[in-house]
Amino acid sequence: MKQVLLFDLGGVVSETKFERVLDKYAQKYNWNLAEMKENIFSEEYMALLAGKMNLEEFSHWLAGEIEELSIPELKEFVTEYYYSEEPKEEVVNLIERIDSQYQLGLVTNDIGRLDEKLAYLNLTGVFDKIINSSQVGYCKPQVEIYQSALEKFDVKGEKVIYIDNDPVCLNNAASLGIKAIKFVNAQQLENRLSELGIIRRVG
User: Fold this and answer.
1) Mind listing the UniProt keywords for this protein, alphabetically (predicted)?
2) Which residues lie closer than 8 Å to 66 by C-beta, 6 or more apart?
């Protein structure tokens, strides 16, 4: 019977460096960091993640909200910010050891360039199906994005395990009957997946 293992991307499969990039550009262009953060993580940003606004529209909106921002500076920042991730090799190695009875899914928020990011992270083809916020119209931690995952795999919640580092996301997924595993580190995840008989043991 089909079983599914869902992963979050940033914070689980990849390590993000977003804060470092934000600090770098705030210093480089003398941006107001507090104002920048407030506007980046706004309702408009959620609309971008949900595919209701494209990156060009969001960039112009953000430049209009913050006087010291220029479009060229903002585009430079967005590109570096978007790619400020690297794969967690220990987690990727665990994924490669998952029993073949499990289908693998990725549930992530994205601004519409996920194929590029997965290629950059060398993760293209790792997951059987991808639930991308900008395509399904809902963002983590909304329950609807996890419902979209169930529909995409055509399974019920009790056949799904979801791994994330965000308790809110895990709780919302669990409300659909999905088994939630809070990610702490690769060793903890390996231990938990071994207990469940999901990964092949080494040696």
Assistant:
1) Hydrolase
2) 31, 32, 35, 36, 39
Q: CB count, 10 Å around CB of 177?
A: 13
Q: Which domains does the chain have, with CATH numbers?
A: 3-15+87-195 (3.40.50.1000), 18-82 (1.10.150)
Burial of 137 (0-12, 13-18, 19+ CB in 10 A): middle
Residue in this structure with the two tokens 């390590």, named with its chain if needed: 15
Query: Does pTM top 0.85 for this prediction?
Result: yes
Per-residue pLDDT tens for 34-52?
A: 888 888 888 999 999 999 9
Q: Is 136 left (phi over 0), alpha (psi -120 to 50) or beta?
A: alpha
How far is 150 from 15, CA to CA, in rounded Å?
A: 26
Residue bearing tokens 């993640």? 49
